[in-house]
Design brief:
The protein contains nine helices and eleven strands. With about 280 residues, it is an alpha+beta fold. Among the domains are: about 100 residues, 2-Layer Sandwich (Alpha-Beta Plaits), CATH 3.30.70.1030; about 45 residues, no CATH class. The strands form two sheets. Strands 1, 2, 3, 4, 5, 8, 9, 10 and 11 form a nine-stranded antiparallel sheet that branches. A two-stranded antiparallel sheet has the order 6-7. The model has no long low-confidence stretch (mean pLDDT about 90).
Length: about 280
């Protein structure tokens, strides 16, 4: 409501988010029984490659494909775009390709990028410095606050429309915050949640340059509340960061996690070759 009591202007109806992008994680398995009856010629392989590389105007703003290790899936697509149908178009194009009859969709996760409520603004960052013992009148304090304020737009952009790193290893998992009696995240004071998330972020920062993270929100969109995608320079770092962060109170007391999917960055052609298609 505005000061005069009139309703605030509403956004036009749209499937494009007011802030942030849609994100889709899709996991697939080959049905070998169906595959053996298909004509797997060069045209069929080319059709598959065109479907998942989406090299034409239908390509989402962000798209990567992965070979998935283990039996939960054979390959995966991770995509982001302002338009959710642009993302789903890649999935539909894959399923209707010449090899689509032999492709089984085994899992998907739908979410949206966001700026976390636990990302401190300039004033919150300043208060954090003061609590750590910084003198608010010192040039050092003022320089730190100014530098943080200048970094905020870049930090916002990286959360809302992130670039995907071309690092070789990736893992994805969904998560919730606990609502268990005695460990209900949503009944904790905001200040306590903020402190726990700051500890969690500090643990992650120790892996800068080795692991990068994307957390997308699925509250009201999918079965879990958030999806976590980790890219790493080496798969060993995936193991190390998840193990390290499990000791943070935000995870140890309040974290609930779904299945993990681990993949390795690959082209469509590499997926076909690896899967012996």
């Amino acid at each position: 409501m505005n000061p005069h009591g009139a309703p605030a202007q509403l956004p036009e109806p749209s499937i494009i988010p007011v802030q942030g992008w849609h994100c889709g994680h899709y996991f697939y398995r080959w049905n070998r029984a169906v595959l053996k009856d298909l004509c797997v010629d060069s045209a069929a392989k080319s059709d598959f490659c065109q479907a998942i590389s989406a090299s034409d105007i239908t390509r989402p703003e962000r798209l990567q494909s992965f070979i998935v290790s283990g039996h939960k899936a054979d390959f995966a697509l991770v995509m982001m775009d302002p338009n959710p149908l642009t993302i789903d178009h890649v999935h539909q194009r894959l399923m209707s390709s010449k090899l689509g009859a032999a492709v089984e969709a085994v899992y998907s996760f739908t979410s949206m990028s966001e700026i976390s409520e636990y990302l401190p603004d300039k004033d919150q960052y300043a208060q954090k410095l003061i609590r750590s013992g910084e003198d608010p009148t010192s040039p050092t304090f003022l320089a730190k606050v100014s530098s943080y304020e200048k970094r905020l737009p870049m930090m916002f952009a990286q959360r809302l429309a992130p670039e995907f790193p071309t690092w070789p290893a990736m893992c994805f998992y969904p998560m919730n915050k606990s609502r268990n009696v005695g460990a209900n995240w949503f009944l904790q004071p905001f200040s306590a949640r903020m402190e726990m998330m700051a500890e969690h972020a500090q643990s992650g920062m120790a892996f800068a340059g080795r692991v990068t993270q994307l957390v997308t929100a699925s509250v009201g969109v999918d079965d879990w509340e958030w999806g976590v995608t980790l890219w790493a320079r080496n798969p060993q770092f995936l193991k190390e960061i998840v193990y390290t962060m499990r000791y943070d109170k935000a995870s140890a007391t309040f974290g609930e996690f779904g299945q993990f999917y681990t993949g390795y960055l690959s082209s469509a052609e590499q997926i076909l070759a690896h899967c012996r298609i």
